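Protocol step 4 of 5: obtain the predicted structure for the target chain.
Materials: sequence only (see below). No template structures provided, no constraints applied. The aim of this step is simply to have a reference model before the mutagenesis design in step 5. Sequence pasted as it appears in the construct record:
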Amino acid sequence: PSLRQSATNTRRHTSSKPNVQQVSKHPKAEGELPKVREVYVPHHPDAVIVSLDEAAQELRIIADYSRDENMLSCFIGDNKKDMHSLTGSGIIVTWGEEFGGWSYEVFIEALHAGNKQAKEARRLGKLVNFGSEFGAQAPKLAEMLIIPEEEAQLYLDAKMAAFPQAASWKQEVEEEVKHTGIVRTKGGAVRHLAEALMSDDRYEASKALRVAVNFKVQSSAAEMIKRAIGAVWRTGLRFKYDCRFLFPVHDELVFS
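Step 4 output (structure tokens):
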């Protein structure tokens, strides 16, 4: 594909002919294997396609920024917690009195025992975690999950209760950009949002606040991938081994 490093405000790579950023690795129907990536073949018969990706990259960046204790406990320490189960355990208590006394530990036990409600709550927890990180509010989340807006708000509240410091950090970012008009990535890149924030269009102004948080997270993640690509080049891996660097896909580097 043709790759562009600097064609987006988010600093993510974009590509065309083909757009490899949208090559799915997930099955489109339950029980089916995803076949779409099989059209990419190695550079000779004895080679294989290798995809290296960052683990929970953007969630880790939020944990680092916010220092949220529950979120940090998912990535560091001897007894790491499962982030989606933390949100899921908050979601499940909204389903009725029978789940009212469920702690995170009880939820994990039920999950490991194959409890259907726990499995569904964790699935929803994962969707809420990722959806809300990209600024999805209750109306959008309700649309994504095909549930009433009131229920979606309960799920968002459960997530905020699970990670209160992360929620506070987002508010701090929004307040800061209101005063300065700019927002920075971890690498120091600046996005200017003053004009959008002062717009008479309330949608544009509120969108700028979501953009500020997203820029600090997604754009810092994009910089990490570019640094990784640079490191691969500087160490000469491309020339030391019989390999080819094919392309980046969001948080992945794909080699043959």
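Step 4 remarks: Strands lie at 2-4, 14-16, 50-53, 182-184, 190-192, 245-249, 252-255. The mean pLDDT is 91.
Proceed to step 5.
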